[in-house]
Specification:
With 198 residues, this protein is of the alpha/beta class. The protein has 6 helices and 12 strands. Strand 1 (12-16), helix 1 (22-31) and strand 2 form a beta-alpha-beta unit.
Length: 198
C-alpha cells in the first residue's frame, strides 16, 4: 500500500466512456473506495475531480471526443490542473505529438512527449512484462496491447518506469501516462499512485 485510503472517498473519478477499456478502470477505482463514473458528455465531466482516458482506438476516440463536444472541455480542465491518467490510446491522445497519426487526429498536447502508435506491433504482438515503477516496492505486471511507444520526452517530463530501454510510464505535473494497460494487471497500485496526486 502507498497511502491511499480504502474508505469511501468524496473525490469523484471520471472515466472517459466513449470507446475502449473504460469499465475495468472504473472497477479498480470502485475497489479502492472511490466514486468512479463514466463520462460521455460535458455535463458528466463537470461533476468529476480527476479523469482517466483509457485504452482503445485513438483515432476513433479522437473523432468521438469531437462529436460528443468533450474535446474542448477536457482540454480546459487539464490546463486548469485536473489530474488525468491516460493509458495506451489515452496516452496517445494526451501527447504533444503523434508521429504517425492521421492528419485529422487531435491530441490534447498535455504532456511533452512524442509517441508512435502501435509501435510494438499488431494485436498478435501483444506481450506482458514485469517492470519496476518508481514508488512501488516490487515489480508491476504490465500488459502491452498494440502499445504506443514514447519516442521522446521533454525536459519537464519524469520517467517513472521502463520496459527495456523504453519509457512506458511518465508524468508531467497533473498528467500521468502509461503505454500499457494497468487495469488488466489485477494490481491496484498504479491507480493508487495516480490517486496520490488527486
Amino acid at each position: 500500500m502507498i497511502g491511499v485510503s480504502r474508505k469511501k472517498s468524496a473525490i469523484k473519478i471520471g472515466v472517459l466512456a466513449l470507446q475502449g477499456a473504460f469499465e475495468r478502470h472504473q472497477k479498480v477505482f470502485q475497489k479502492l473506495g472511490f466514486d468512479a463514473v463514466q463520462v460521455r458528455t460535458p455535463a458528466d465531466l463537470a461533476k468529476v475531480d480527476a479523469f482517466v482516458m483509457p485504452g482503445g482506438e485513438s483515432t476513433t476516440m479522437s473523432q468521438l471526443l469531437e462529436s460528443s463536444e468533450l474535446f474542448d472541455p477536457i482540454g480546459r480542465r487539464i490546463k486548469n490542473g485536473m489530474p488525468v491518467f491516460g493509458t495506451c490510446a489515452g496516452m496517445i491522445l494526451l501527447s504533444k505529438k503523434i508521429l504517425d497519426g492521421r492528419e485529422d487526429q487531435l491530441s490534447f498536447e498535455a504532456i511533452d512527449i512524442d509517441v508512435q502508435r502501435n509501435a510494438y506491433g499488431r494485436q498478435i504482438d501483444s506481450f506482458e512484462a514485469e517492470i519496476e515503477i518508481d514508488s512501488l516496492d516490487s515489480s508491476f505486471h504490465a500488459v502491452f496491447i498494440r502499445a504506443p511507444r514514447i519516442v521522446s520526452l521533454g525536459s519537464e517530463v519524469h520517467a517513472l518506469a521502463y520496459c527495456g530501454d523504453d519509457v512506458v510510464l511518465a508524468q508531467q505535473d497533473n498528467v500521468m501516462v502509461a503505454s500499457f494497460h494497468p487495469e488488466l494487471a489485477n494490481d491496484v497500485r498504479l491507480h493508487e499512485l495516480f490517486l496520490r496526486g488527486v
